[in-house]
Amino acid sequence: MESSYQLTIGKLGLLISMPHNGQTIPKAIQQTMTNCANDVSDTDWQMDTLYDFALAMGASIISPNYSRYVIDLNRNPDGEALYAGADNTELCPTTTFAHQPLYLTDQQPSAKEVAARVEQYWQPYHHAIAKTLALLTQQYSKVVLLDAHSIKSQVPRFFSGSLPDFNFGSADGSSCDPALMARIQQLDLTPYSSVINGRFKGGYITRAYGDPDNNIHAIQLELSQRTYMDEEQACYNEDKAQQVKQKLHHMVQCLIDFSKDNN
What we know:
By secondary structure, the chain is α/β, with parallel strands linked by helices. Helix content is 30%, strand content 16%. It has a single domain (5-260), classed as Zn-dependent exopeptidases (Aminopeptidase), CATH 3.40.630. It contains seven helices and nine strands, in the order ββαααβαββαβαβββα. The strands form two sheets. It has a seven-stranded mixed beta sheet, with helices on both faces. α5 links the parallel β5 and β6 (194-196). The chain is globular.
């Protein structure tokens, strides 16, 4: 069976995961969905393009082929809410970020269908993450997992006002060594704004795989799409992207340097 993800193994103790980069919806699922689902509007657009420099730096990169509308790879497979007390999208989302229905009447996925998608799409991606991290920990004394995301700067469903540009999360400090976040804090990200463990503290991937006691240090970056896109047109802006890429390059180098310490 064709793989549901793309994985490139690098030559450093750094794995970059892009769980919301995929855009494909299988035809059988698409037939049960509304027209707005075809726009896959909540995609973390062009993460692979934004981080293309990381391949040359030697990072490993994993990215799914399928849209988060099929299944959200950054959610607990048991359906547990990511942020208690807040508005959360489901493991298999039924609405867009703008509360538009993703499924036709009475066509929402059943528990059986959700379980099938977990087996077909969720498990292979997470098996690959776990396997890659195990491989890297055999080769390097410290491994860093960066879960790379982006989101519109304004999504009233999840937060008021405008989001900072760089939103780092470490599950309130539990998913990585404090020394790593201290280095992140020292980065010069001007003219961009930044926050650590603000509205986005890290999703399931950051929380599940971050294990600093066993030398796996996970962080999430939720990047505001205004830093590299024309948001109104949902269009990649090359000039903006080139500017923010310089900061992303410095950040990735920071993660690499941390992974090399004591190797």
